[in-house]
Q: What sequence folds into this?
């Protein structure tokens, strides 16, 4: 074996003999988990939660904590249809996450009539109408967490959905109203080593059903933790921990995101002790803010740059994830630079009110801000074509915006719209058809040339 290894260092082709464990297998096949995420029967007090889990960055499962939400009993399909059937929500295509596909909107009632037999996945902010039926876990009710709430997101599918391996720049509690979720979880330090090839969205586009260990060598020895979240459980996932989630059965989850809390406010717990009562926990009693998360992001850039940043440094770093637009202009920089000395420090950013931070980021939602200057890569020709002809049917946009389309993909797509037995041909804009035909031509010519050159090599 040893001699074989030595030989392999000399001959690159040996790599093919040396298949890493878990190659082309589902994520997590490369080695057993370090263990299961700790699980507790009682939700801790806010102070205990802060000391034991938030401060230490330690995930934990609160068994049965989601059962305290009224929605846990109420949210059958028929109840939801009757009460909220008209609410319009964002529904993704494909349970396997594909961030290049735009979602489209439909009424909850419509989603409910198709979701059991389709590949659609509802992912959107929990509609405000439903807030009285979801309760915050009691460990968040005082100490400062509730003034840093970012979002409550509803995840709804008939099971079988799979996320990308990704991380979030917020603290998170995920509560299972229905179904089960399996989690592949990576601690903060090891997450930093994962090749997040889509830095704009903090995710790794590895195929989680069939991991290519050569393309993603950072996954070959990655230690990981497992968690199984049962119906009625909630789990805390700290900021920066990588995770990949697989959902089973009729699956409804609500997760709460909040900006990491730097200092626990014990006075707040003394003053607001009565808030710990369950009727006070309803989400409708709280408000979401964006300024604190944006402040947190600005502080990170400052910290990463040794404690202070100039306009020239920060300007290219803070961009819109979708547009690449530089959000911190000279004028907005001045709004954050409290002492007007031309550099931003922690003191500057801490001393401006949250709504000013919001304004300085152009009111951009924190989820769409990237602090490493990365924005979504997309074909500029496609984007400008779509912009010039206006809104297209979702099926067309979804296809056009998807990365890495092959000749076969284009041909299949075009033949679908040319088939007289489905009357969709009118859905395809002439400009889009022309664009696809040109691409098919180019790809056919390229492929012909590639064949020729392969042929040449063989003759050599
Ligand atoms: C979908 O399937 C679940 C069981 O998996 C069932 O409880 C639910 O009523 C079904 N919904 C509809 C609208 O058929
Ligand atoms: C701590 O909480 C109290 C009571 O809610 C509040 O008045 C005070 O402003 C808070 N302190 C900080 C630093 O946020």
A:
């Amino acid at each position: 074996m040893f001699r074989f290894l030595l030989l392999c260092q000399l001959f690159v082709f040996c790599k093919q003999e040396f298949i890493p464990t878990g190659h082309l297998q589902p994520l997590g096949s490369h080695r057993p988990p370090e263990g299961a995420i700790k699980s507790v029967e009682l939700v801790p007090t806010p102070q205990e939660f802060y000391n034991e889990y938030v401060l230490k960055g330690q995930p934990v499962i609160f068994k049965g904590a989601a059962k305290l939400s009224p929605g846990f009993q109420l949210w059958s399909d028929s109840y939801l249809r009757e009460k909220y059937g008209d609410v319009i929500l964002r529904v993704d295509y494909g349970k396997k996450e594909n961030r290049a596909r735009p979602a489209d909107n439909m009424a909850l009632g419509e989603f409910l009539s198709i979701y059991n037999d389709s590949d659609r996945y509802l992912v959107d902010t929990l509609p405000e109408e439903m807030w009285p039926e979801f309760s915050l876990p009691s460990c968040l009710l005082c100490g400062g967490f509730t003034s840093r709430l970012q979002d409550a997101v509803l995840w709804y599918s008939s099971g079988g959905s799979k996320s990308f391996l990704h991380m979030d720049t917020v603290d998170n509690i995920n509560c299972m109203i229905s179904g089960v979720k399996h989690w592949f979880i990576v601690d903060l330090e090891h997450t930093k080593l994962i090749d997040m090839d889509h830095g704009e969205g903090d995710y790794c586009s590895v195929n989680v059903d069939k991991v290519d260990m050569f393309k993603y060598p950072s996954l070959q020895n990655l230690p990981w933790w497992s968690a199984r979240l049962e119906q009625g459980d909630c789990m805390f996932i700290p900021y920066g921990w990588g995770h990949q989630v697989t959902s089973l059965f009729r699956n409804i989850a609500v997760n709460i995101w909040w900006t990491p809390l730097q200092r626990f406010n014990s006075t707040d717990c003394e003053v607001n002790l009565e808030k710990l009562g369950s009727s006070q926990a309803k989400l409708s009693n709280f408000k979401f803010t964006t300024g604190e998360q944006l402040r947190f992001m600005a502080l990170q850039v400052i910290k990463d740059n040794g404690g202070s940043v100039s306009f020239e440094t920060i300007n290219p770093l803070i961009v819109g994830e979708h547009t690449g637009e530089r959000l911190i202009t000279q004028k907005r920089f001045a709004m954050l630079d409290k002492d007007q000395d031309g550099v931003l420090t922690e003191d500057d950013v801490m001393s401006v009110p949250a709504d000013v931070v919001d304004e300085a980021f152009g009111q951009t939602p924190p989820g769409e801000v990237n602090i490493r200057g990365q924005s979504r890569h997309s074909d500029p020709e496609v984007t400008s074509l779509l912009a010039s002809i206006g809104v297209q049917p979702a099926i067309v946009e979804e296809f056009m915006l998807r990365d890495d389309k092959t000749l076969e993909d284009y041909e299949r797509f075009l033949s679908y719209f040319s088939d007289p037995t489905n009357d969709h041909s009118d859905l395809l804009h002439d400009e889009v058809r022309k664009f696809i035909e040109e691409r098919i031509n180019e790809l056919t010519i390229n492929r012909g040339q590639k064949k020729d050159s392969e042929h040449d090599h063989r003759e050599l």
Summary: DSSP finds 16 helices and 16 strands in the chain. The pocket of 2-acetamido-2-deoxy-beta-D-glucopyranose (ligand 1) is lined by residues 77, 112-113, 116, 250 (CB under 6 Å). The longest helix spans residues 430-459. The radius of gyration is 25 Å.
